[in-house]
Amino acid sequence: MTQKPKEDRKRVLGGLDLGGTKIQAVVLDEHGTVLSQARRATPQEGGPPAIVEALAAALEEVTKPLQLESSELTGVGVGAPGAVNAATGTLLQAGNLPGWSGPYPLAEALAKKISVPVYLGNDVQVAVAAEARLGAGRPYRSLLGVWWGTGVGGGIILDGQRWMGRGAAGEIGHTVVRRGGARCSCGRRGCLEAYAGRGAMERKARKALERGEKTRLFDWMTEQGKDRLTSGVWLKALKQGDPLAVKLIERALRMLGAGIASAVNLLDVEAVVIGGGLGTRLGQLYVERLRVAMKPHLFVPQRPPDLHLAGLGELSGAIGAALLAEPVAEILAPSTEP
Amino acid sequence: MTQKPKEDRKRVLGGLDLGGTKIQAVVLDEHGTVLSQARRATPQEGGPPAIVEALAAALEEVTKPLQLESSELTGVGVGAPGAVNAATGTLLQAGNLPGWSGPYPLAEALAKKISVPVYLGNDVQVAVAAEARLGAGRPYRSLLGVWWGTGVGGGIILDGQRWMGRGAAGEIGHTVVRRGGARCSCGRRGCLEAYAGRGAMERKARKALERGEKTRLFDWMTEQGKDRLTSGVWLKALKQGDPLAVKLIERALRMLGAGIASAVNLLDVEAVVIGGGLGTRLGQLYVERLRVAMKPHLFVPQRPPDLHLAGLGELSGAIGAALLAEPVAEILAPSTEP
After folding, report:
1. Which residues are the signal sequence here (chains A, B) (predicted)?
2. At residue B334, does pLDDT exceed 60?
């Protein structure tokens, strides 16, 4: 039997969303459909080599149900937290990854292991690109994605393309919403993330607890077997009307409203998409509340941007990573068959 | 004698910068060189028709030294303050223009009068585009222009093109730098313009004077025969070390630093160009002070954007307006002669 001509082979892409605690993997077909998904823990020891091993293992796991080898993938994309040099496939810095210090040629190291071209992007930027292509952002040519989680990240789509600036565009979490205000984990003051990031809110909640403020946030955390205030803990606390949780989320919403409206005043995009762990967990109700919080700060309030919850859920990062490999696969391109 | 073939005719563009108090006109040749310039007062009575008359008169005045008629111009561009529909040539709203209320088909009205195609753009957006093409922004593919005057306006160039969003992009003056802060002339609170706009600073100075704070700002205003604190008055007060003037400008610089850095964190542009009446008048020394004020808020402080004073001075608006008519003139295009 002869080998099938190249254009008849299945074009399938692997996507890896590399986080501080977990790796999410997907396989995407040429229509952008998720054929398979898998998740595993990010190794907390062993630094970059251990992480590359784990990425390769995640790919094996996600290709197995499709009776594929990793090496049969047309291309693989990795979304990583931190500053990325997309051209060289180097992860420049990644504060959230255990044992990571200084630049590491992540794409090259993984490509060598799996014998498939590997592309690297920033996790939030690629997640926003996935929403633009296949999720809530599909109807729009321009949008701002705001990823509300431990931090507040963002991504920008203009004229249907990712806008990356000199590589670091989208850092809406470090918009100054209150000059001289709260201390941010980045070391600066008054950043949006210092009010709205889940990490910052947890620090604030712990201080309030020490001061004797009444809250059951940490009881629920312990009940759920967690050691930090997860999005699920916040959601439960809001549903129960915990006064501290309500106060901190209200404050976060006010600041998100100001920060996102400022970005809209600058960019005048058609739509804003809200994603991230906390954003997707809190859901549509809080997207509506954000709409209200933005309104007083919009320069053209009679024509606000459309506002949506991310449509791809927690897979957006992995799907967006897979789309990084699109150039080799011509995925989603019109069929050439007669 | 036969008419010259079209490609041999001189291609010259007219540019009109329409402001609340004056109209600046230029004629530009195909290399972007200013051949002629003229300035006249904006009529304070008669509304849109009087303004169209004055625009036509300004064109006559600026073409006369070149022994041209307005109708011999290849195309004319108008930069106007306010919201513009570029496609239809309609000025939607213009709070700063005397007697202007509601949309008016400005381009069509002027074109009818002078028998030349007329293009309309927002004044700050076109001024920034002029800086990008012919001024301080020439070396860059992406930049943010910040026009510091009565208000604080802005314009964005990405990948060498103006980014206009849905028409209103660039409103950096309405970035919230202090949520719940000072009242802005737009009616909202905490906008950058509420701290750094020359109009807002004058209101603050008048209140301080009423409270008995010591300042000679208004003495110098009267000496110079003005009825408002012009950029020249502010410059004189700073040079003399007037304590109130120094305090208000320092505050403006701090807020500009935060607001511009936030925009850079979002867009990661290569350069920022500072223009506008106050920006150009205060000059390079204050651009350096702005550099210092931005630094604490930059997410990637080790790689700040380049920062420049606008290079075309007060002609940037008129030159940018002329460039709106470029498509009909193919100005600056490579010569087709052998």
Report:
1. none
2. no
